[in-house]
Amino acid sequence: MKILVTGAAGFIGFHVSQSLIQKGHYVIGLDNINDYYDINLKFARLNELGIPKDTASSFNKLVISSKHRNSFKFIRLDIQNREALPVLFKKEKFDVVCNLAAQAGVRYSIENPETYVDSNIVGFLNILQCCRNFNTKHLVYASSSSVYGLSDKIPFETDDTVDKPISLYAATKKSNELMAHTYSHLFNIPTTGLRFFTVYGPWGRPDMAIFLFTKAISENKPINVFNHGDLERDFTYIDDITEGITRICEKKTEDRKTINELYKIYNIGNNNTVKLIDFITEIETNLNKKATKNLMPMQKGDVKKTWANVDDLIRDYNYQPKTSIQNGIKIFINWYQEFYNDII
């Protein structure tokens, strides 16, 4: 199939592009390469996909072919662009769109709310309109576990009430689900939203906890541990996430006729919960260093515990998260040390 992956220079988008290419699909990756974090990491991911930095760094509307992958092309474009995005859709006629482009980060949304509306609302609307106007067979898109807010019902299930977000980021992701439902209902577009649960692994974002902890401990600097360490997360390794997304993108949608079939929401996580302190201990073990911990109060927008019920995804796609925290953290730290040439 011909698949558009937005956010292809991002953490999850890069891995999903790689997986789809390896499965034999023709992928066009799209990213605006904003400066929310170090763009050199984004260029390095693209380089792994065969797009050299000097080519990817120039703004243009031409699709750039990969040097060593004949099934991948890249375009530097913002999903907010109402003129250029329809041109791309009209030319390429995508079978599937996997929309992973978004402004990420719960805490960043408190100080920069406009950015989230621009990317996560306006940009997503443009994606929906293009899928509608150019007959895309399936839209797969990123939602977030943050939509569950302060729910104390554990584990989180997709039929739980999620109308009380506690961050603007969460509110935009819930808005995406509502917008997708509207387009599925009005225009018979199959849409599948995925509520991600604390994804980690190689090539991750520098603002992620595992990245921040590893960097600080490596440099003998203290780490900030919020809610005095009394936090639990459904940490999910990137390969498990990627495998799930790939299976969803590959599944035919012709038999999805009713609104309950056309519009789908799934949790995608590890189906388990891990204490933050245990997560930090595993990092310490792999670095062979003890962390100096600054115990801090709960941050605005954070929740105490997340845990995904993924029974629906197991039933419909044979989803099987299988990477333990021990293996996942070990692989991440090996990548981190190699990528940044740290001597630890």
From TrEMBL:
Keywords, in A-Z order: NAD
Domain NAD-dependent epimerase/dehydratase: 3-269
One Pfam family this sequence matches: Epimerase
Record-annotated membrane-spanning stretches: none
Coiled-coil intervals, chain numbering: none
InterPro entries reported for this sequence: Epimerase_deHydtase (IPR001509), NAD(P)-bd_dom_sf (IPR036291)
The name this protein goes by in its record: UDP-glucuronate 4-epimerase
